[in-house]
Design brief:
Helices cover about 60% and strands about 0% of the residues. It is mainly alpha-helical. It has a domain of about 60 residues: 434 Repressor (Amino-terminal Domain). This is Helix-turn-helix domain-containing protein.
């Protein structure tokens, strides 16, 4: 069954970029300082923050240095039927 969302993949991608940039700035880290901590090149961080393009491994390294990687991994946990969002109008109406 298809999953429907009010957000596009591009919007979520932009939100993730904005979130990590805000975390970097809140931590008062320059791109250079984050590059040294994360082993992600400064040019790659700049590219990520301006074009939203980065390899998954680099994204995970940035997240690990700016947030809790376990929190991100938690998104892979299966949802219980009572916690998941409805995926159809029938599910909404049956609640």
């Amino acid at each position: 069954m298809a999953r429907y969302s009010l957000h596009s993949a591009a919007e979520v991608q932009q939100d993730l970029v904005d979130y990590l940039r805000a975390c970097r700035k809140a931590a008062k880290l320059s791109r250079t300082a984050l590059a040294e901590r994360s082993a992600v090149l400064e040019s790659t961080i700049k590219k990520f923050e301006t074009t939203e393009q980065v390899l998954l491994r680099q994204f995970l390294l940035l997240w690990q240095n700016l947030d809790d990687l376990v929190r991100l991994q938690g998104l892979t946990e299966p949802e219980s039927p009572t916690e998941r969002m409805p995926t159809s109008i029938d599910e909404v109406l049956s609640r």
